[in-house]
């Protein structure tokens, strides 16, 4: 009887060890989702590198905006660093209200996201959302967006469907970020008129002579002519499962200068990787990552800053 009891206890201990080991491994896994925008990709890949360097098992998965939120809401992903507000309200707010996705602190402030035109079109009188329909023939009744399912595209589609600003007979032309900007630059070379989705930070602001349109409101790209704040989002329960990573994310405020300069590097060298551009900037601005890592420890409990610096300068 005692021998049988001993076997049961040994087996129970063995199973408990397996369970605890699985939980320990799970507590080190952090799954990022991101959308194929340069700014979001840089922030996400830097965060992935930072977590990997301090002992976590970080991974990334590229999705469209709606699918990224679905992944967070169903516990198939943990973190999204690209919640541009207010334009993502229509997609993101239902998930916030359900409690399945948590909107954390801003990761980037004083960004911009709205409709834009080349400067020659702006100087020609196309300065406000209300002006777009007046120049419909010059614009070929088109507004150029980025990938389908994107929140900015959805705003444009809503404006067209509801005939806001007399845009009912316009079409949206979806494309990739790269494809849309190639189209804009092609039109600009020939002084042709075009309305497109523009945002800052982005290298387009340095390479394209452009202006943002006035007239955005709470139903479109938000008040203050498209001024945006970008937030960190996590799945419900993430802070309890990953308290130290959650603290790091609370510190993770990315300067607009970092993204602007990283994007310019990527534009000037098309062989450069997004992560490399971000890390080059960090090596030149150590005060930024030192702020991110203040009070943060590695997955095994050591101070994170020297461990990350060793990986960064390797």
CATH fold assignment of the largest domain = D-Maltodextrin-Binding Protein, domain 2
The structural domain count equals 2
Q: Give Rg in angstroms.
A: 23 Å
Based on helices, strands and strand pairing, what is the structural class? alpha/beta
Q: Please describe the biggest sheet, giving its number of strands, its sense, and whether it closes into a barrel.
A: 7 strands, mixed
Number of helices: 16
Number of DSSP E strands: 9
Helix content: 40-55%
Mean pLDDT: 91
CATH homologous superfamily designation of the largest domain: Periplasmic binding protein-like II
As a percent range, the share of strand residues is: 15-25%
CATH class of the largest domain: Alpha Beta
What characteristic shape results from the CA principal axes?
globular
Q: Which H/E pattern describes the elements?
A: HEHEHEHEHHEHEHEHEHEHHHHHH
| Cα distance spanning the termini | 59 Å
Low-confidence stretches: 5-26
What CATH architecture label of the largest domain applies?
3-Layer(aba) Sandwich
Describe this entry's structure for a reader.
The protein has 314 residues and is α/β, with parallel strands linked by helices. Helices cover 49% and strands 19% of the residues. The chain has helices at residues 2-27, 38-53, 65-73, 89-98, 119-123, 136-139, 151-161, 177-189, 204-207, 223-226, 238-241, 243-251, 256-268, 274-284, 286-292, 304-312, and strands spanning 29-34, 57-62, 79-85, 101-118, 142-144, 171-173, 196-200, 210-212, 227-235. Helix 7 (151-161) links the parallel strand 5 and strand 6 (171-173). Helix 2 (38-53) crosses helix 14 (274-284). The radius of gyration is 23 Å and the shape is globular.
């Amino acid at each position: 009887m005692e021998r049988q009891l001993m076997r049961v206890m040994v087996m129970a201990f063995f199973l408990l060890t397996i369970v605890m080991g699985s939980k320990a491994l799970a507590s080190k896994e952090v799954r990022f989702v991101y959308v194929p925008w340069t700014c979001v990709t840089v922030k996400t890949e830097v965060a992935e590198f930072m977590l990997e360097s301090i002992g976590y098992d970080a991974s990334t998965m590229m999705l469209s905006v709606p699918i990224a939120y679905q992944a967070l809401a169903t516990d198939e992903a943990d973190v999204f660093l690209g919640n541009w507000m207010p334009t993502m309200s229509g997609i993101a707010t239902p998930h916030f209200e359900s409690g399945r996705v948590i909107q954390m602190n801003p990761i980037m402030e004083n960004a911009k996201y709205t409709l834009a035109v080349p400067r020659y079109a702006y100087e020609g009188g196309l300065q406000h959302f209300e002006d777009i329909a007046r120049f419909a023939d010059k614009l070929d009744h088109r507004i150029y967006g980025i990938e389908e399912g994107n929140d900015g595209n959805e705003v444009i589609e809503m404006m067209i469907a509801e005939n806001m600003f007399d845009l009912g007979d316009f079409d949206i032309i979806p494309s990739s970020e790269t494809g849309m900007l190639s189209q804009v630059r092609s039109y600009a070379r020939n002084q042709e008129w075009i309305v497109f989705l523009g945002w800052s930070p982005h290298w387009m602001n340095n390479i394209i002579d452009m202006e943002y349109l006035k007239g955005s409101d709470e139903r479109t790209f938000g008040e203050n002519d498209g001024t945006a704040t970008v937030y960190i989002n996590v799945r419900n329960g993430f802070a309890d499962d990953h308290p130290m990573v959650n603290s790091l994310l609370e510190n993770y405020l990315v300067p607009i200068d970092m993204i602007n300069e990283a994007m310019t590097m990527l534009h000037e060298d098309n062989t450069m990787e997004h992560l490399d551009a971000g890390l080059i900037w960090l090596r030149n601005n150590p005060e930024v990552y030192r702020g991110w890592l203040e009070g943060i420890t590695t997955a095994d409990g050591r101070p994170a800053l020297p461990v990350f610096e060793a990986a960064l300068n390797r």
